[in-house]
Fold this protein.
Amino acid sequence: MKNSKVICIVANSCQMVFTRRQILTELLAIGNKVVVLAPLDPYLKTFKDLKGLTFFHLKHLQPGRMNPGRDFLFYRELKRHFERHSPSLIFTFTVKPNIYGAYAASRLGIRCIPTVTGLGYSYLAGGLKKEFVFFLYKRAFRRIHSVFFLNSADQALFESRGIVSHDQCQIVPGAGVNLSFFSPQKKSSSVFRFLFVGRLLGHKGLREYVEAAEILISQGVEVEVDVVGPLDAYNPSVIEAEEVAQWITKGLVNYYGEAQDVRPFYQECDILVMPSYREGISTVILEALAMERPVIAADVPGCRDVVNSACGWLVPPKNSVDLARQMRACTELKAEVLNEMGKRGRSRVEQLFSKEKARASYIAAAQFAEEVYLMA
């Protein structure tokens, strides 16, 4: 029997759930118990003060890798958890939790709402892998009543492939941004700094960012080019440590590793650079804008949905020359211009991408699920 007060959240990392902490807090505040299913990572400690939340480690989820045997074990693992906890509603995030979570929920007659947070490596890699993943999506989503998307391009793609109908879809503003936590801070140094924040992956555009840095150095432009983020052992697009070491020894970038609190890096940068090949909605861009830092981003879904001419610049993806040209142009702008763009960026986030706006759709869905349960 389904429990009207239990909601499951499934994701490929505790970090993914952490970015949606406001949703967890609200779900708990209105009387739900929340069961989080995800692989264990250091972000788990951020849940320890949330009473009513229970965490279970997913042993068989391997993000970024296609292994039919392991994926079947992951499906069975999810199904056992759903049977054990009997939730009235399941929220899933990222590719494999979306696909196999929807399969398992449908088999058990439990309402499930996947959030398509992005299309992942399989889409960018193309070929048979991409087609196979879309095949899985189509089968998994055929009994799903609602699917959340972070941008209209992803929704249109799923509709064009017959995976979802227009009536199933809803656009939500990503994880949102905590505007109190990511507040404007004055930069302390006079050195012009660019910043990249994200996993060290090829499809994040990191190589183009480094190539652009090399172009600027060859032109005698005096800037610091910073990189913050973890090496991703699971993703096929991972940039190996040896390559990163070469960038450092050549003096192209300053690499600071992973940081759970990225605010000091946003504070000391002048411009955030996000040359990703595709995003759902870039949380990194939203955080930088919230701290009043303009952004250079690739003109792709998930970036163009956030950045406009008032708060940044869009450049062609996979093009280090154009990226370097825009980065150099930014170094020639007056501080007053960058400051004003930063203020407009924060205003844009306040209007469209706050935590309050991000959580609204999930809370409404949870309340609807309880009403359906009580009427049954």
Notes: DSSP finds 14 helices and 13 strands in the chain. Residues 193-352 form a domain with the Rossmann fold fold (CATH 3.40.50.2000). The radius of gyration is 21 Å. The chain has two domains: 3-176+354-375, 193-352.
